[in-house]
Amino acid sequence: xxxxxxxxxxxxxxxxxxxxxxxxxxxxxxxxxxxxxxxxxxxxxxxxxxxxxxxxxxxxxxxxxxxxxxxxxxxxxxxxxxxxxxxxxxxxxxxxxxxxxxxxxxxxxxxxxxxxxxxxxxxxxxxxxxxxxxxxxxxxxxxxxxxxxxxxxxxxxxxxxxxxxxxxxxxxxxxxxxxxxxxxxxxxxxxxxxxxxxxxxxxxxxxxxxxxxxxxxxxxxxxxxxxxxxxxxxxxxxxxxxxxxxxxxxxxx
Length: 253
Prior knowledge:
CATH class of the largest domain: Alpha Beta
């Protein structure tokens, strides 16, 4: 008996297809986040608490903590960073800790990520002379005026930060995302398009093995080796786009 999924996949023409870039994923880096605590202890924590009213099926904020085990899916940090750049609509950095300052420099050094970066910072840090201002903020603003967003958000006096400042930052970021293209012509060679194709295949078929995903990607003119498939599945799971479940000795996605 022929598998009905084969018939469905074979009916798809990738040459006539467009990639639906949804949901729009906002990768959020910054200070500590603990949503179980009643008091805010970082700007990023305030972001996550207040963004719930803005999130929808088309826009989601994703924490960097979801990727602490990135080595489970990737052997190279640069490959991991590039895939984040391919799938995320925005990479938002709030430079409020030593760790987030490191992420700021690391991400700025990656040209693919740089194009999608938005920095949310305290106003005095935007106006003061510093290496970060001259080396990162000014060049980013030359590329995109909306890439650097200063507000009255003193990281060192979190109790003085008004929720309205954070609400304004969230609204500005989401407004920027809504202006981005929602679809693009499918190009098999583009890694981001391949990631979204895997997501759509799993969503369409409901349950696929790695072997089936590999075969269907090849049938659709987008062949990937097992290593690329595994890293794709890792990333899609961490972005909460797909899930995995083991039945017997086989994992289904």
